[in-house]
Amino acid sequence: MGIHQRGKSNSIKDLLVRIARREDLEILGGDTTPFAIYASAWLERKKAILARSTYGDYRSIWKKYVLPHFGNMPLCRVTRRDVEEFLGNLPDISAKRKNNIMVPLKCLFNDASRRGEIDEPPSENIRRLKERKPFIDPFSFREMRLLLEHVDPHYGAYFTTAFLTGMRPNEMIALKWSNVDFEMRCITVREGRVLGIEGPPKTMSSYRDIDMLDPLIETLRVHRQEVRAGTAYVFSGKTGRPLEVNNLRKRVWYPAITSAGLRRRTMYQTRHTFASLMLGHGEDPLWVARMLGHTGLDMVFKHYGKFIRNRSRKDGGRFLEGLKESERNWT
Q: pLDDT digits over 216-246, tens only?
């Protein structure tokens, strides 16, 4: 083979390699749309069907994590290795948050594949990271009373309600007086607020009616007389503005924990405290699940199984009583 032919053969081989790597976009004639452009268009298409809070979270994910990494890279050039590198370079945040960041990214690639923009999603078969089980560190009755004694009195009704209902913080800060029924003795959960945006709960089971116990009814009746007239929200800041979870945690919750001399715990432990104390004192797990907004007993047993016990006897007590009764009847 002559030098000219060998050179031509090598050029063709190089070209095929470049095509395989999608490096020669002109010859490929493929879509060179920058990732950022497609991502913005995808999010706008989803805006009409996403909950406002979810849309806001996706926008934040795009701005903070996704676009700085993929930038102006052509969508068709993103590889599995690029996605794995993105996931591996995320900052020191929880596995759950990383998984949440990957959700819209995977949806985008699946959408691009269905529309024929790319051959197959580069995020295909990238598994979710293993998430840690939530750490459950409930308050005892003594600790609960101690905290309520040391919390800023303006927020006493808020935390009393949190302990006695197991409501989530985002449900608490969106609660309005129109959803508190003193006559029927229940709180109706129909909204939540995330990142300053109010909307319906994400799951059907979160739509629920929560029974108000006697101490809570009294607390909220007194609280209603103390709040500003015409205030729609049950709980608000001292200026009358709606509460914000991060500020509440930082400015009210942790100072009260410190003042009470209690070990540091997350504000979400109020929900865990409700569940553990109710189950530990023999309340029906199905009722507890309904109050928490779970569809069944799976989550209750998974997270609070160790608290389900009858405090008046050891496990198996009813069986032993039945066995003794049968023995008496037999003799």
A: 999 999 999 988 777 899 999 988 888 999 9
For residue 27, what are the contacts with CB-CB under 8 A and spacing of at least 6? 15, 18, 19
**pLDDT of residue 263 exceeding 50:** yes
The predicted pLDDT at position 147 comes to 96
Over residues 39-47, mean pLDDT = 92
Q: Within 10 Å of residue 158's Cβ, how many Cβ atoms?
A: 25
The torsion defined by the Cα of 286, 54, 97 and 278, in degrees rounded to 10, comes to -20
Q: Is 25 helix (H, G, I), strand (E, B) or coil?
A: helix
Tokens of 115: 């529309």
- Can you spell out the DSSP letters for 227-293? SPTT--BSSB-TTSPBP-HHHHIIIIIHHHHHHHTPPP--TTHHHHHHHHHHHHTT--HHHHHHHHT
Given a contact cutoff of 8 angstroms between Cβ atoms, the answer to whether 265 and 163 are in contact is: no
Residue 29's pLDDT is what? 40
Alpha-carbon torsion 300, 303, 307, 308, what sign?
A: positive
293 phi-psi bin (left φ>0, alpha ψ -120 to 50, beta other): left
Tokens of 331: 């003799």
Neighbour count for residue 185 (Cβ, 10 Å): 15
Q: What is the pLDDT of residue 36?
A: 92
Backbone phi, psi, residue 189, to 5°:
-95, 115
DSSP sequence for 176-221: BGGGEETTTTEEEE--EEETTEEE--SSGGGSEEEEPPHHHHHHHH
Element containing residue 43 per DSSP (H, E): helix 35-46
CA distance linking residue 242 with residue 196, whole number of Å: 9
d(CA 168, CA 265): 15
Q: What is the dihedral of CA 100, 104, 110, 115, to 10 degrees?
A: 170
Residue (of 98, 124, 105) closest to 38 by Cα position: 105
